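Box S1 | Example of a co-folding query
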Amino acid sequence: MAEICPLCGNKSLIKRNGKLHFDPPKHISTETVIVKDARWEQCEECGEKIFSVELEMEIDRILRERCSIQGKPWKGLSWADDELVG
Ligand SMILES: [Zn+2]
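Box S1 (continued) | Returned holo structure for zinc ion
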């Protein structure tokens, strides 16, 4: 039941669920975000992860809170920037 990955074009995008580990862009946080009971799609070829809107919002919320604790300004989670860093 794999689907085509928008990044590498291989038919290796599979639905995943469980505990998600997400490495945020370094300028936001150096600690990995862990979301329990997450659902996402992941490419087995290139490792590209595709998040649902709900999951993006959850990660956004966690990082926003983390920035606020550290006294950093919140500039939003730019997914494009993340791709450049990775
Ligand atoms: Zn891929």
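Helices lie at 53-70, 79-85. Residues 5, 7-8, 10, 43, 45-46, 48 surround zinc ion (CB under 6 Å).
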